[in-house]
Amino acid sequence: MSDTDARSARVALERLRPPNAWRLPEGFADAVERYVALLLERNRQVNLTRVIEPDGVARLHLLDSLAALPLIDAVAASRALDLGSGGGVPGLVLAIARPAIAWTLVDSVGKKVDAMRAFVDELALANVEVVAERAEVLGRDGRHRESYDLVTARACAALPVLVEYALPLLRPGGLLVAWKGPIGDQELRAGAAAGRLLGGGEPTVVPVGVPQLGDHRFVTIGKSGSTPARYPRRTGEPARRPLA
Predict the structure, then answer these.
(1) How far apart are CA 115 and CA 150, in angstroms?
(2) pLDDT by residue (tens digit) across 215-242?
(3) pTM over 0.90
(4) In CATH, what number is assigned to the domain containing residue 103?
(5) Residue 5 belongs to a domain
(6) How many structural domains is the chain composed of?
(7) What angle do CA 73, 158, 219 make, to 5 degrees?
(8) Contact (CB, 8 A) for 91 and 103
(9) pLDDT digits (tens, 9 = 90+) for 56-95
(10) Domain that holds residue 179
């Protein structure tokens, strides 16, 4: 059943994808179909996604991930990190779509990390590393701190919290791309204030550009300077006491 649903999701994505949108590598459709089959099969044992109908998978997982490709391509990243990857959305989809980028997929839930590692092995994705850790810990780890050209995050946290998770991981000149629905001025102002403390620029709201995704949008923040050594704060503190 998973294979049939994955094939249906592939067909639905081809129908939903805007004409001539997004350069995709040879073999992308086969790889992403296999990923969907693995995701739906593993989801029977581990809660990875509530979206399991083929049309929903195509629109809310695949199309929603791919809609960020123009922003990602503009960065010309060599290293990218996806925060809160869960079952691999958007990070695994983007890693399949952009195999020249070295992707680090991060989640703090061990069962989700185990599932993603199995997916990476099954798909033979040499450009993907999966890490089980909290963002606050990675942001203080010399291997990860200010090491990435791009950080992506979907449904991860409110903007001021996400900024403290993400900006310590970005090198100066890097970019945070956050998937958002409707976002108010208060959250944007709080995100901007947090960003200024952490070496970031002003948030920019970017239309998703795909009618089938409704009121989805992206918020981007560029990294303009180094993050002070005292950030990120200890685990849990950004969420309990957002900077702004």
Answers:
(1) 24
(2) 999 999 999 999 999 999 999 999 999 9
(3) yes
(4) 3.40.50.150
(5) no
(6) 1
(7) 25
(8) yes
(9) 999 999 999 999 999 999 999 999 999 999 999 999 999 9
(10) 62-240
